[in-house]
Structure prediction request, 402 residues.
Amino acid sequence: MLQVDAPGHGLPALTQVGGRVDLVADLLTSLRRDIHAHPELSHQEQRTTALVARRLAAAGLAPRVLPGGTGLVCDIGQGPPRLALRADMDALPVDDGKDVDYRSTVPGACHACGHDAHTAILVGAGLVLADLESDGLLPGGVRLIFQPAEEATPGGALDMIAAKALDGVDRIFALHCDPRSPVGYVGLRAGPITGSADKVRVTLTGAGGHTARPHLTGDLVYALARVVVDVPAVLSRQVDPRAGLSVVWGRMQAGGAANVIPRSGLVEGTVRSLDARAWERAPSLVEEAVHTVVSHYGVVADVDYLRGVPPVVNDAECVELLDEATRAVVGEDAVLTVEQSLGGEDFAWYLAHVPGALARLGVRPPGVSRVEDLHQSTFDIDESALVVGARVLVGTAVLGLV
Prediction:
C-alpha cells in the first residue's frame, strides 16, 4: 500500500484522511457488494437511492431525495456548499457473467461499469467528511451528488442540474473506474479526458422485390451495406482527423428470406468525437453523408440522430487540486497521466456550468496484465480501490475548501 501521510501541508484534517477512511473500509466493500447484487437500470434506482439515504442519515446527515425516488443530494459542513462530489448509480442492461458471491440477482442488469463502486466510494467519503466536520476539522461546506441514469442519453446529470444540485457550488469532482490502470493509482489529465457520444439510427425504405431482378427495384440491403462502409469514410474527409470523429455501427437489421429484397432495414451506431467543435457539427455531417451515399440506390433514408454528451473537459486548476490531494493522501507516486478516451460521460454537463475535473481510478489487481473492459458482463474491480477512491475525494474536498 502506498504512503498515507500528508507531509508539509499543515492541515490536521488532511493528515487524518487515510486513517479515517480505513475505518470504513469494510463498510465500503459490503455496500458495494450489496449494490452490485441488486443493480437498477437508468431512472429505476429507487432501492439504491434509499440505501444511500439510510447510510447517510444514520451518520446524522440530512440527504434530500429527488422527486421520483432516484437520485439525492446531501450537504455536509457549515455554510453553503462550495464544492461538490458526484457519483453515478445506474447499472447496464446486460446479464452478470461473473461467478462471485455478490453476482447480480437481477436478470438483464449488471454493474458492468463500476457505478456500484462510485456510489460506495462517495458514501464512504461522506461519512468521513461528516466525521471531520463533527470534530471541527472541515473548513467549509461540501455537497454530495448521487446521480441516476448516467448510462441514459443524454444523461441523468441534466436532471440533477435541473433540480438545482449545482446551486451555490463553484467546483465539482468525480472518479471513474479504470480497468487499464492498477489499483493504488489515479489517472489525471487537464483538458479533454473523454469524448462526445451520440447515437444514430438510419432507416432505409424501398419498393422491395425479387433478388433475381435487383435492377427493377431499390436494392435495399446493398444500400444498407454501403451506409455501413461508406458513411464513416465520407466523414473522415469532412473533419480534421485530429478531431477523432468516429462512427461505429452496433446493430444492423434487414430482410427475412434469402431471395427477397426487403422493403425496409436499419442500422444503428454511435458517433464519437474528441473535439467539441466536431461534436457540434456531427449531426448535419452524418445526415448529409447518409443521403449522399444512398442517392444512387433507389431507396429513401431517414436519419434519427440522438444527441448524447459533449467531451468532458477538465479544468486545469481542478486537476492540480486532485493531483495535490492524491499525492497527499494516497502517495507521492500515485498519480498517472492518462490519455483522452472516446468513451462518453455525462459529467460533461456539470462542467458546462462550473469548473471541475473527472479522475480515473485504477481498479486492476496487482500482477494482472489486464481485466475485462468496462461494459463487459464479467467486469469486476479490485475492491481495495474503494479506499483509494474515498481518500482522493475526501482529500480533494478538504484541500479545495482551504
